[in-house]
Amino acid sequence: MVPSFAILGTFVLYPIVQSFVYSFQNVTIGGDSTWIGLQNYITLFKDQQFWNALGITLEFTIASVLVLIVVGFILALLLQGESLANRIVRSVFFFPTIVSLVTIGLVWKFLLDPSIGFVGGIFDLVGLPPVAWLTSTSLALPTVIFVNIWKNLGFAMILLLAGLKGVPQERYEAAELDGAKRGQLIRYVTIPGIRPTMLFATLILTIQSLQVFDLVFVMTDGGPIFTTDTLVNLLYRDAFVNYQTGYASAISFVLFLIIVIVSALQLRFFRYNDVD
Amino acid sequence: MNKRKLIIGAAALAATALALTGCAGTSSTSTSGPVTLAMWTGFTGGDQPGYAQIVKDFNASHPNIKVVQTVESWDTIQQKLPTAWLTGSGPDIAAPSSDPNVIANYVKTNSLLPVVTGAGSSKVNVSQLAPAAVKELTYKGKLYAIPANFATLSLYYNKKMFTAAGIANPPATVADFEADAKKLTLNGGSTQYGLSLADNQTIQMWPILQWLTGGDIVNSKGCSVLTSAANQAGLTTWANLVMNDHISPVGQTGAQADSLFSAGKAAMELNGPWAAPGYKSAGIDLGIAPVPAASDGSHVTLGSIAPLAISAKTKYPAQAQEFLAYYTAKTTQEKFSLTTGFPPLRTDMGDDAALKADPTVQVFTSQVPDARLYLPQLTNATQVDANAYVPMIGKITRGTSVASATAAATSTINSLTGCTQ
Amino acid sequence: MSTDTPRIRRADPINRPQVRNPFQALRSTSKWIFLGIGLIAALIPFIWMISGSFRSEADLFGSPSSLFPTSVTLHGYIGIWQQLPFLRLVLNSFVFAGVTTAATLLFDSMCAYVLSRMHFRGRTIAFWLVLVTLMVPFQVTLIPVFIELFHFGWLNTYQGLIIPRATSAFGIFLFRQFFMSIPAELDEAARIDGASHWRIYWQVILPLAKPAIATVAILNFMNLWNDLLWPLVVTTSPDMLTLPAGLTLFGGQHITDHAVLLAGATISLLPIAIGFFFAQKYFVAGVATTGLK
Q: For B35-151+304-373, CATH number?
């Protein structure tokens, strides 16, 4: 445990504290820093862009995690057998998970380009008008959410599959002996059985989604007109384009607080007697 | 006890692994050889060979100095440079951004060494550099960076499409420009757009359209003038051309606008000299013309510069100055222009025969006197761009009324610049 | 999060008796139609990416509805090969991802063992601290970490690249969840025989944790291989760049040559795809038998 904590302490926890201190300062890296107390946070709560980014981040997270867990669960149910076909299909679904978000963002951006991309080409072929997936204010966010789901579906599926495999056979057998029907089996055996895995998957996916950056940065850079501007995208812009390190740190601590609260709620929601 | 042993073992293992890979932090500390100057730039485009050539020629002619250029994306440089310069681990010379306004931030943090100006081969002769660029990079009377390049935007057009539409010449006036853009748009843009406009992640094109119709963004006090009658009229005209006549797709990034033109799906685009080689190799029958004349007959285009500055913590200030002086010298600039198509930084090369002979360089150079910068020396210019200007163009091309979009942009701009009416 | 009936699953999943649960009935044509659509959606972007890397701009723009090149051009790959010290980048990527993954496995599993098996004050706080590090976006700590590395003199070195990344909260979390599902009776039996914690960890727990090791190893290697921001920040000299970092040079602001960008994407994908192809048997099966709790 010592090496892990030495590394986490030096390279993660200490910088977090450092960054927390910045959030109470008006600091420009290399320049003067002045202690301004809660001013950054006050500005933040009056900042329309912050509220916009917060709303978009939550929308992104809720939509992504819901679809991922539900569809991932269905896929896991469909593909839990160990036949060769099932294993091949699982691998294919899992494949996007191993590819970097930057690559995925880039490829989808080209695919969806209304005038030169493959999707546009197919639409044209069947006589549909071109769709401005990423430059339309109403479609950009759903499109980015779709690509995020596309990438992470295999990950969700494989985690939930692991949970399914962990449900002891004997429980199904016992329930069947008691005369349970299929729906009741899912309700009373499967879902309680995979609750800990659901928790793990939901927690990890939620944290990941709340921190989404690469995909948005590559595909839309927050546009059009801030309709895909997530919190990390906003704090990136403040820290590295506008050089307002203190303000960016304040945003990151609000985000951190949100993640902690959401995680705690999820832990509580899934908490049952058998859960540590 | 056992755990401690394990940690020591792990550390030893890691050390061995590092030693095996042979690169555990060796740095060259030769004292007798030439002085090495590190330079970071973000020039990843087609103009990169031009900068590489300058460095190569400089190193060849200055045996005591060796400039090593590292090219990274602008995003990376923006992330690393402030901290790198703060800790003294940064480069001696750098182009901190493609946006000259960031120099203000570095001046504020005392990260930069003022450029030594004056006559002589080891100084930068300011009087011979494009005045707009010099003004942009001067703070409190001192020049803090030289322009690494000075680009003007010209009108690229697809000759084949012009012929097909029965238009003989590129538009000479803004009225022709508007009419041609309409005429060259086929089937509402689904087969061909008249003009490829970008409004985000790009060198701005819309200010040119505003200037052509008598408008502007801010006045000399940094106050927004977007709500003026001329602006309302000009922006309404162009927004209607985009929305109703579909002369251009909505909301393109710079790269997308370039792709559209290079794919042969748009007849015109406003772009800088870096684009020409790519368009030619994509097989476009390419014409390049000056930006059409404004409604009052004057000429205007957008000029764009990338700054090149010296770190305040460099160990070799004299050598770095010498490099900048060499960079702005006549022979260097002539070669650079011919390699890249960019106009030279200097104003005393208008009669240079070699440059005149190159039609591409000629078009871009001829517009240098008319070039205006985007939001020059404006407080918080990057935020004015991101939070006011880009969203405003985005809104008016998507149906928001010009009046309300410009009003919103005006209040954002005025609060960012601290304008006092 | 241990369950009331902890169990160990080591049996080869392929030879396990077929699961007799109600979902088997779902295996039908409609299932395969549903999956077929999913498969197409999952694969087309990759097919398009690889084929696009061999297409000229004119071909790409001329027939956007085609998945395959009309004529093959290598100029994307030639462009990359000429401008990047390619083998060096691949080597750096392997050293970075490989050594870091090895260190992570060791440190994470040890840490997880302590968190799941030893009782001491502050154990819960320690676990929460680990979780907290998962919850902070990397961009937040970027500037302080950079300044630290500078003070250590680790910028532009392999140790600077590797050591800060040599443990991952995700790995500790996953290992801990797995160790919790291993029955405590096993190590109590060993303890009665006089085994130290070290021996229990090394001889009892780790051998049972092979699926978890495989999972953490592959997920970690993959994340490190794909990591862009970290190597970009720590390294400045071209000799130290990793593959994804080197390839960012081709995403210029102005003109985009799609073939070069797609060739870069294909190249960075290739090693990990090959690795996935050979390892996925262990991996997909591995995750599926962790009995992840």
A: 3.40.190.10
